Amino acid sequence: MQIEIWSDVxxxxxxxxxxxxxxxxxxxxARENTNIIWRSFELDPKAPPLHPGKxxxxxxxxxxxxxxxxxxxxxxVSGVAREVGLEYRLVDALPGNTLAAHRLxxxxxxxxxxxxxxxxxxxxxxxxxxxxxxxxxxxxxxxxFGIAADEVLAMLASDDFSAEVRADEARAAELGITGVxxxxxxxxxxxxxxxxxxxxIKMLEQP
Length: 207
Fold this sequence. Notes:
Helices cover 51% and strands 10% of the residues. It is globular and about 50 Å long. It has one domain: Glutaredoxin. It has a four-stranded mixed sheet with strand order 2-1-3-4, sandwiched between helices. The longest helix is centred in the first third of the chain and has 17 residues, at 12-28. It is built from nine helices and four strands. The mean pLDDT is 96. Strand 3 and strand 4 (189-192) form a beta hairpin. It has helices at 12-28, 55-63, 67-83, 99-109, 114-128, 135-141, 149-157, 162-174, 197-204; strands at residues 2-7, 35-40, 182-185, 189-192. With 207 residues, it is of the alpha+beta class.
């Protein structure tokens, strides 16, 4: 079974959905019979490399809510993340433009390292305050999933893999995908959101 996953590396629900999907793979025993392809989706393609201000302030401005409501939103998603073993530090997160990160994931895929790369980048963003739009910071992570930092810096200094990111996003538009995570099973059946483990198991066990 081929499973394509549209995701953004700064999306808290994408990391939660990733964990739930991984739990479903383990419980269903389907891990060895699946081919997982990570697809790019930028939640804010016009974002600067690094957003100014604190996370709560940005959420309040984006959604037109009070600072208190923004704090509650952060606490709510962090609580859900904790249920799947993820300890978010969203108040310290450093969001920004994710094009470079997505290009790096496509580069990693050419080395059969996309799975470890997705995990390492998401962990660094949600737990270690990785400045997601910083090329040097991304390059420093790369040796941890088997790619030399200087190779990553050279790639990011070029336009390599930008077309692949845009192709993923164009296909997402064709499929009517407006939010992530989005999981497409064998190019036919898609489900949106960080669904419960049971939903993923049902999809994995379908004939």
